[in-house]
Specification:
The structure holds two protein chains of two kinds. Chain A is an alpha/beta fold. Chain A has helices at residues 14-26, 44-47, 74-78, 103-107, 147-156, 175-181, 195-210, 228-235, 248-255, 260-263, 266-286; strands at residues 2-6, 30-35, 50-64, 84-87, 90-93, 113-127, 133-139, 163-168, 186-191, 215-222, 240-245. Chain A has eleven helices and eleven strands. A nine-stranded mixed beta sheet of chain A has the order 3-6-7-2-8-1-9-10-11, with helices on both faces. In chain A, strand 6 and strand 7 (133-139) form a beta hairpin. In chain A, helix 1 (14-26) crosses helix 11 (266-286) and helix 5 packs parallel to helix 6. The radius of gyration of chain A is 22 Å and the shape is elongated. By secondary structure, chain B is of the alpha/beta class. Chain B has two domains: 10-59 and 141-303, 3-Layer(aba) Sandwich (Rossmann fold), CATH 3.40.50.300; 69-131, Alpha-Beta Plaits, CATH 3.30.70.20. Chain B contains eleven helices and eleven strands. In chain B, the strands form two sheets. In chain B, strands 3-6-7-2-8-1-9-10-11 form a nine-stranded mixed beta sheet, sandwiched between helices. Chain B has a two-stranded antiparallel ribbon with strand order 4-5. Classes of the chains: A alpha/beta, B alpha/beta. At the A-B interface, helix 4, helix 6, helix 7 and helix 9 of A face helix 4, helix 6, helix 7 and helix 9 of B.
Chain lengths: 287, 312
């Protein structure tokens, strides 16, 4: 079972929920945790894995053999991302714009293009002493493309058949979130009961529906804001699996990197029930 | 001094790395405070096109609405397809699906690179431009607002950010606005880079939490990478003293000024629920006082930044 924890709005508590779900599961099951928020990866601060295996995330970008190049300009014409420009006799490649699709190489009539790896970030994995197998991607500073780092993280760190997988997804609803949700069985959307939270929950739900993912909601910091989020969930039959009341002492504890279930042990049972409800929902879908 | 009628408006961008650290609440207060003085009249831009929330607190009235066509998708014409499967072989995004020699493209996975189109021996594939979102120009109570909504799941958020910023910049020049205020997206990737590009000053809203500090460091390095100077504003400054001190020491070592320390206060989400910047909702409150001081600091620094196209 693969559960992706996501949200439209940032800072609603995705990592708080994802890491505590993993901790609750780890006392009964084998758990694989993937931090797919490669722009702002923070789950390791709560799960404390020993990150001792590393691999570079790279994109194959074209390199032109100027000696073989016949200057027909086909590469620049076929590139849909403006990553290749022709300046007189020289072919310029802009690696930051390249998507690594290989079309220029396929289409070069002179066979003058080979590919070179261009570093985008780093993949890291290791085990925590709770037994959780953990991996994360870290996008390099100044690199625009998060999606290939997420894709390579998921290809590199494959869950084992007996493992339950928790994915910590990036905020938003654009391509990095989509890449993180691909292959998941269930989307757990964490939101807060404010107009910002509601606005972004609607968008995130639109996305998970389009992806055909069974979806549930956790309302965090319950008590602030208004009833709009709750009303919305009721109106579209989106199950609210848990409410976490606003609690200043809890906020202070999380600020220090202490997991939710360590600060408030009663959430072990609450989150176990959330997992049971998700499992039940998925069994229904399978029937 | 900011000079109306100058060559281009100065760009102030609000960022955080980590989501939910209070970017939009701080930005909405800045938009309100900027509108109170002629020398800081601003064109407002919401560059968080995935989850655009600034409009919820500045009461915009839509003036224009346009489609944003970003990217394209490969479409296979079944009448021409011979079922050879070359498209699936060349696609690096696993976007071509096959079922009993029938090939089709998964629109969510397709990157729009057209490699399959160039290789199809039957010319059975064409590329269709996609509507990836919409952009809007609105009048708000604090100035013109440029904002956008990316279609959930769509690509090219960076291009959409660049587009709204370009349109806003033109409006600022045409109408002699001295300032542009950009509410940035979370993270450090493509849309953030588009939001940072061309900025004169970045205000980094940071929470004093272990996550907030890690993400602040990453966004500061990103901003530095693009040669934009930065100030740090510590939000919810009193939730974790050791975290606040860590930010202060870090910024001290880097020579970065702390523009303000905003206390944790439930009046902030209350203001948001009422659709008001906190400086309007509770003008005499401690959060508003802190934001007034922060804004004065930001404005003073912004007045001293000099655009590369300015001369003595």
């Amino acid at each position: 079972m693969i559960i992706a924890v996501a949200s439209g709005k940032g800072g609603t508590g995705k990592t708080t929920i994802a890491t505590s779900l993993a901790l609750v599961l780890a006392s009964h099951r084998s758990v694989c945790f993937l931090d797919c928020d490669v722009e702002a990866p923070n789950a390791h601060l709560f799960l404390e894995p020993m990150l001792d295996v590393r691999k570079l995330a790279v994109l194959p970008v074209p390199q032109i053999d100027q000696a073989r190049c016949q200057h027909q300009g086909t590469c620049a014409k076929v590139c849909q991302f403006n990553a290749i420009a022709i300046a007189g006799e020289t072919v310029l490649v802009f690696p930051d714009l390249c998507h690594g699709c290989g079309s220029c190489m396929l289409n070069c009539p002179a066979g003058a293009i080979i590919e070179q790896p261009h570093r985008l970030g780093i993949l890291e994995s290791g085990r925590a002493n709770t037994g959780i197998r953990f991996a994360r991607g870290v996008l390099d500073i100044g690199q625009p493309l998060a999606v290939p780092v997420i894709r390579q993280l998921k290809q590199w760190f494959r869950p084992r058949p007996d493992e339950t997988v928790i994915i910590d997804a990036p905020p938003g609803t654009s391509c990095p979130t989509v890449e993180s949700l691909q292959g998941a069985d269930y989307a757990l959307l964490v939101t807060e009961p404010t107009p910002f939270g509601l606005h972004d929950l609607r968008l995130a739900y639109e996305l998970t529906r389009e992806l055909g993912l069974p979806t549930g909601v956790i309302i965090n910091r319950d008590g602030i804001g208004d009833s709009g989020t709750r009303d919305f969930c009721a109106s579209v039959d989106l199950p609210v699996l848990l409410h976490i009341p606003l609690d200043r002492a809890l906020t202070e504890g999380l600020a220090q990197g202490v997991p939710l279930v360590a600060l408030r042990p009663q959430y072990t049972a609450h989150l176990w029930r959330v997992l049971a409800m998700i499992g039940h929902r998925l069994r229904e879908t399978a029937c | 001094m900011l000079k109306p009628g100058g060559p281009a408006a100065k760009q102030l961008v609000i960022l955080s790395g980590k989501g939910g650290s209070g970017k939009t609440s701080v930005c909405a207060a800045f938009c309100h405070l900027a509108s109170l003085s002629e020398r800081a009249r601003a064109v407002l831009i919401d560059a968080d096109v995935d989850a655009s929330n600034l409009e919820l607190v500045v009461a915009p009235h839509r003036v224009e609405e346009h489609e944003f066509s970003g990217g394209q998708l490969a479409v296979i014409n079944p009448a021409l397809c011979a079922g050879c499967g070359i498209c699936a072989d060349v696609c690096r995004f696993e976007a071509v699906l096959e079922w009993e020699s029938i090939y089709t493209v998964n629109p969510i996975a397709c990157e729009g690179c057209a490699a399959c189109q160039t290789q199809c021996p039957e010319d059975a594939i064409h590329m269709e431009p996609q509507v990836a979102g919409r952009w809007f120009r609105s009048d708000s109570r604090y100035g013109p607002l440029f904002h956008a909504a990316l279609t959930p799941g769509a690509e090219n958020s960076g291009k959409l950010v660049a587009l709204v910023k370009q349109l806003a910049g033109q409006m600022a020049i045409d109408n002699a606005y001295p300032l542009m205020i950009v509410d940035g997206p979370p993270g450090i990737g493509c849309p953030v880079i588009a939001a940072v590009s061309g900025a004169d000053l970045a205000v980094i809203v940071a929470e004093p939490t272990v996550s907030g500090i890690a993400d602040m460091q990453r966004i500061l390095r990103t901003v530095e990478h693009f040669n934009v100077s930065a100030l740090v504003c510590i939000n919810k400054a009193d939730i974790y003293t050791a975290g606040r001190e860590e930010i202060e020491v870090f910024c001290g070592d880097k020579g970065l000024a702390i523009a303000g320390r905003i206390p944790f206060d439930l009046a902030v989400p209350e203001a948001m629920s009422q659709g008001e910047p906190i400086t309007v909702y509770e003008p005499g409150g401690r959060v508003s006082q802190a934001l007034h001081e922060t804004w004065e600091h930001v404005l003073a620094v912004l007045n001293n930044t000099r655009r590369s196209d300015e001369t003595d």
